[in-house]
């Protein structure tokens, strides 16, 4: 585990000249990350299911005076390997390259005993939370390897919570994702591509409300408080945390 350096804040233009793809861009941490990375100078490729939400976020980023973002609607539930290949081809053609990926998309429908999970829901959860991040990373890795410095950020969830009863396919996928980060790091350790995990604390998100419906989620911090950590992992400073999970829970 790694921690964010004390007092670290993004330097002006920390991500200038970098193109960053963010999945789940209209969700809690995805949206906050998109805004923070854009403010740091990155060109953001916004990937999500609903065009209306992506367009609203596009307008917010433009209002910052940041580089013009791009919108890429894609539903990870039904995406195929060919869809990810097309995404990589589009980024190469329209953006000229890729320096960062943030896997912020998540699928969780609530707590449920494992024996009651419908097969299609099990497959849907694994598709969004595990298969999608792997297939997307596999598709864009050649683009990332062309850069002098690139990074991929996988958003984790607290294993002490989601490895317990009723977390089902979501918990299984998050455990497997941690293994994927370790494997990818070993395979890219001597390349320009850095692999990172990011473990945020409980946040004020829809996913949190689904898992803790008796809790007042408004007491939890906004995802925007932790978006600077995403910028850290994507910029050159993040090299110090290569191959590790950045644990934000203590802060």
From TrEMBL:
Annotated InterPro entries: NAD(P)-bd_dom_sf, Sc_DH/Rdtase_CS, SDR_fam
Keyword set includes Oxidoreductase: yes
Gene3D superfamilies on file: NAD(P)-binding Rossmann-like Domain
Superkingdom field: Bacteria
Keywords: Oxidoreductase
Protein family membership: Belongs to the short-chain dehydrogenases/reductases (SDR) family.
Classification via PANTHER family: ALCOHOL DEHYDROGENASE (PTHR42901)
Protein name, entry field: SDR family NAD(P)-dependent oxidoreductase
Origin species: Tahibacter amnicola
């Amino acid at each position: 585990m790694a921690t964010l350096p004390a007092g670290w804040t993004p330097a002006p233009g920390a991500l200038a000249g970098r193109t960053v793809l963010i999945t789940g861009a209209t969700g809690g941490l995805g949206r906050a990350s998109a805004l923070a990375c854009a403010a740091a100078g990155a060109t953001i490729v916004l990937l999500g299911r609903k065009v209306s939400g992506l367009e609203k976020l596009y307008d917010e980023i433009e209002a910052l005076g940041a580089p013009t973002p791009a919108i890429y609607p894609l539903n990870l539930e039904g995406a195929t390997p060919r869809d990810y290949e097309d995404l990589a081809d589009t980024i190469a053609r329209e953006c000229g390259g890729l320096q960062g990926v943030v896997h912020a998309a998540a699928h969780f429908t609530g707590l449920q005993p494992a024996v009651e999970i419908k097969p299609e829901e099990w497959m849907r959860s694994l598709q969004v939370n595990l298969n999608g991040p792997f297939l997307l990373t596999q598709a864009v890795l050649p683009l990332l390897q062309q850069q002098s410095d690139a990074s991929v950020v996988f958003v984790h969830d607290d294993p002490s919570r989601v490895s317990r009863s009723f977390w089902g396919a979501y918990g299984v996928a998050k455990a497997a994702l941690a293994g994927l980060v370790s494997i990818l790091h070993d395979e890219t350790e001597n390349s320009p591509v850095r692999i990172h995990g990011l473990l945020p604390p409980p946040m004020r998100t829809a996913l949190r409300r689904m898992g803790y419906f008796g809790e007042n989620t408004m007491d939890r911090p906004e995802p925007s408080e932790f978006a600077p950590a995403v910028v850290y992992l994507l910029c050159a400073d993040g090299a110090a945390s290569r191959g590790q999970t950045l644990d934000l829970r203590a802060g």
